[in-house]
Amino acid sequence: MTTFSKWVSCWGNATSITDRKESTYARDLTLRYPIRMCFSGSKIRLRFSNLTGTEPVTLTSVAVSLLRNNECAPTNSRHLTFVGNAEGVILPGKEILSDELPLSIEAGETLIVSIYLGEFTQMNAGTLITGPLSKGQYAYGNFADEAVLPRDLTRNTNWFYFLNTIDIFTEADNYALICFGDSITAQSWPDFLSIRAMEEDCQHVAIIRRAVSGTRILRQYDCITYQAYGLKGTTRFPIEIDSVSGARAVIIQHGINDIIHPVGEADNCFRPWSDLPTVRDLCDGVEQLYINHARARGLSVWSATLLPILGWRTYLPMRETMRQQFNEWLRSSSLFDGCVDFDQAVRDAADPRAFAPGFDSGDHLHPSEQAYAAMAAAVPLALLR
User: pTM (2 decimals)?
Assistant: First the structure.
């Protein structure tokens, strides 16, 4: 008989400031997110975040249901409560945890999370993520309890609003592996790593993504043009790490935006050269504010190298030198338990400054889907077992 004995995060996302558009409010809206459950368990709890909001957010209702046995629609909708209340109110800059919900779940089933926002809601807290396991939908109207959203009122989305973490009460051997970073990690390699874990029968690990596109280690933007690039890593890291239950290790792939963003005020008033760190600054930031915090939480810490940037619109030989020097520290520093060498996995053998053929998405910064799969394959198996 299976014994469930501890809480482990089985899905997770960062929370950032959403892209500033003309419309920043929604009303009478249903958000729906299908989440593959990697563990079996007996109950769940969900964390919702308004970390970057400036107004309270009311979750009018949150329904969960299970998609199982190749069904085309979920069944048995259940409602979460928050300190016994049907509505959950998230104050600005805060996060809330739902009450525990008894629910028998088998590994491999899909949990459908439907969030209904009845009143005008500031849509300021969410993150854009992509990958084969990261899909969402929204529909205008209250369809949280409906098995299928109405086709004519529904669109797909990769913006994940408010939903931050899903915990499951599960077996003692299960644990979470955190992937921390920027747009490279907000895109597909964590999903491919989850798929690899399934295919290689690594049954006890959950891949938790904590990533925000555009974010830097040492700086952040306070203008609406770049607000979606989120909080600086030294602010994000403790918040995002501490909210993961049952974590054993973290992979940190962060720092390229610190190197490529500054261009000088003559070209962009929000990107002065004074924002450009030294390589020593980057190393000190990672050591003092990432590694030390993770160690204090009992986590093993793995570095991950920065990817090629030849051809990127702000490329300069000086930036390439910084990348190479920072990568050398990531590979060699005894502060880490190991290094995931993503750079080696995707670079061109003939010109290490560039992606290998077929591995460039086209912008010379972000990998192709094929390259993201190669990155997932580069993660040592020891981290998945």
Answer: 0.96
DSSP string for 120-153: -EE--EEEE--STT--EEEEES--TT-SS--GGG
**Which residues share a beta bridge with 180?**
210, 252
pLDDT tens, residue by residue, 311-364: 999 999 999 999 999 999 999 999 999 999 999 999 999 999 999 999 999 999
| Rounded Cα gap, residues 127 and 120, in angstroms | 20
Q: How far apart are CA 19 and CA 6, in angstroms?
A: 37
Which three-class secondary structure state does DSSP give residue 373? helix
Kindly state the tokens that stand for 376: 């997932």
What are φ and ψ of residue 361, in 5° steps?
Answer: -70, -20
How far from 167 is each of 100, 208, 243, CA to CA, in Å? 9, 11, 10
The DSSP-derived string for 201-243 is T-TTEEEEEEE-TT--SS----STTTGGG-S-HHHHHHHHHHT
What sign does the dihedral 291-294-297-299 (CA atoms) show? Answer: negative
pLDDT in tens, 114-163: 999 999 999 999 999 999 999 999 999 999 999 899 999 999 999 999 99
